[in-house]
Amino acid sequence: MLSALRRVPFAVQVIAALVVGIGLGVVARQLGGTADDPNWLAVTLDTIGSTFVTLLQTIVPPLIVLAVISSIANLRHTSNAARLAGQTLLWFAVTALIAVAIGIGLGLVFQPGVNAGVDAGAAEAPDAGSHGSWLAFLESLVPVNILGLTAGTAEEGGALTTSLDFNALQLIVIAIAIGVAAVRVGSAAEPFLAFTRSALSVVLKVLWWVIRLAPLGTVGLLGNAVYSYGWTTVGALGRFSVAIYVGLALVLFVVYPVLARLHGLSPLKYFTGVWPAVQLGFVSRSSMGTMPVTERVAEQNLGVPRHYASFAVPFGATTKMDGCAAIYPAVAAIFVSQFYGVPLGITDYLLIVFVSVIGSAATAGTTGATVMLTLTLSTVGLPLEGVGLLLAVDPILDMGRTATNVAGQALIPAIVAKREGIIDLARYNAPRGLDGFVADTEAPAPGTGTADATGTAGSAEADTEPAEPAKAAGSTPASSA
Hints:
α10 runs antiparallel to α11 and α12 packs antiparallel against α13. This protein has one domain: Sodium:dicarboxylate symporter (Proton glutamate symport protein, Orthogonal Bundle), CATH 1.10.3860. The two termini are about 45 Å apart. It has about 475 residues and is mostly helical. It is found in: Cell membrane. Keywords: Cell membrane, Membrane, Transmembrane, Transmembrane helix, Transport. One of its GO terms (cellular component) is plasma membrane. It is a multi-pass membrane protein.
């Protein structure tokens, strides 16, 4: 049974899960029940969906720390490392700014949350300490401890409960500090960096296991949404989904080709070169899971030198999220404000732009953008119940978002390499083989290190199931930087 299921393409499994989830949600509504006393099927669907989300969130902290440290360490033997890193971050911010502007514009045009029939009183207001001005957001970047953890105690039903939460942005700050320190220490840090690379491979293996559960999680999340909110909400979520995909299409098929053309790069060659990573990102819904193939695409198809690609692509997999951290939170914030009847002012829109550009690292390359959405809604002061509502359609949206993310994560290294004069244009313009990659014998560039492509395992399976990150990660060139 399991072996037969594995032969079904992953995208087909997700689509089937959407249908099953909607069907089970309709059945759950027919069985009756209330919000305070749901029926057994509704409870089961909610448990399945929330468990899947919890598993994903569990992987976020180690992914952030290990991926950021490894990506920074990959620059330690590069002479112009500071300049390359600065150019990379600059273009990450530029594309994020363009994407979030598109997202806000589409949210105002489509108005996906209008006439949804939900009163603002239906949602609890977020905790007063969880949102505020941009100064409060900057203050939240300062780590409270080395693990980025905060503890809280609450009283519920007469009993005290204690919970631990992590701040993704604080973890980024901590990981950057450790990575820079490891580079400055020199050879004495080699055992630590070797451990970091090994630990990242292990974590990516666990991530792959969680990704394989995505169809099951989709059934629970979508089924519970249909039961909880009914068809009126499904219609609003449909308009929201259309707005998101229009924004993703504009970035992927208009913004990225224009940027490539402005830097003297062929948009057609870019698309044919990046297609293996885009395809895998669409079905796997994980930038981190797609990272080995994205890195291979950047080196072997787009002519980016290995020493730079091994920094830019892993770093982009944790911080460069035009789909998840720019378009999505912008449209989502406008949707939630309209859905619950909470008006937004010009200051709120500016806050959305600021958080999207600066805080994109919070997505950490995992399947879904729950952390970034929570950060945006909290900062603007919108009901956090919108997070749970939008998770219902997250599996549909995340495929397109991740495809856009990985396309940008491959484009920016190519742009920076072209600006710095280190790109292999012969390889960039070389014909692609049937597997989607430039053959190793095509236009070799002396000194670029592109003859040894990374991620050789995985791309052939891109149209059937997500690549196994642990296997692919073992072939990444992190140790050669």
